[in-house]
Amino acid sequence: MVEDMNKYLRKLLSKIDGLYCIIISDRDGVPILKVCSDDSPDKATRTSFLSTFGIATDQGGKLGLGKTKSIICMYENFQAIQMNKLPFVVTFVTSRDCNTGHVLALEAQLEPLLPVLRGVVGDT
């Protein structure tokens, strides 16, 4: 089952130029599924970086902004796009020149995977 999910994520990874990494983690930043290319920046795949989404969404909620759907962070050499798919956070790490709209469009292609993953994670 996990092999099929990894294969599916690798297929999505290869669809977009500049997409380095797709990580599905829990809210605390612990990776559940992760596929990365050789170009992926190591620091952007660490638990300490992945867990920042939870902190940012909590702050947005305190400001009365409502439920956070996604956060896009642009850095000097790459960008990180994180989507709220409770109980998961989906993180995409890309080059700074990658088309962000193409990455956001992957959300629809990830939707069928998430209920299956919820079932697998829930069974453990």
Automatic annotation (TrEMBL):
<dbReference type="GO" id="GO:0032008">
    <property type="term" value="P:positive regulation of TOR signaling"/>
</dbReference>
<dbReference type="Pfam" id="PF08923">
    <property type="entry name" value="MAPKK1_Int"/>
</dbReference>
<dbReference type="GO" id="GO:0071986">
    <property type="term" value="C:Ragulator complex"/>
</dbReference>
<comment type="similarity">
    <text>Belongs to the LAMTOR3 family.</text>
</comment>
<dbReference type="GO" id="GO:0071230">
    <property type="term" value="P:cellular response to amino acid stimulus"/>
</dbReference>
<dbReference type="InterPro" id="IPR015019">
    <property type="entry name" value="LAMTOR3"/>
</dbReference>
<protein>
    <submittedName>
        <fullName>Uncharacterized protein</fullName>
    </submittedName>
</protein>
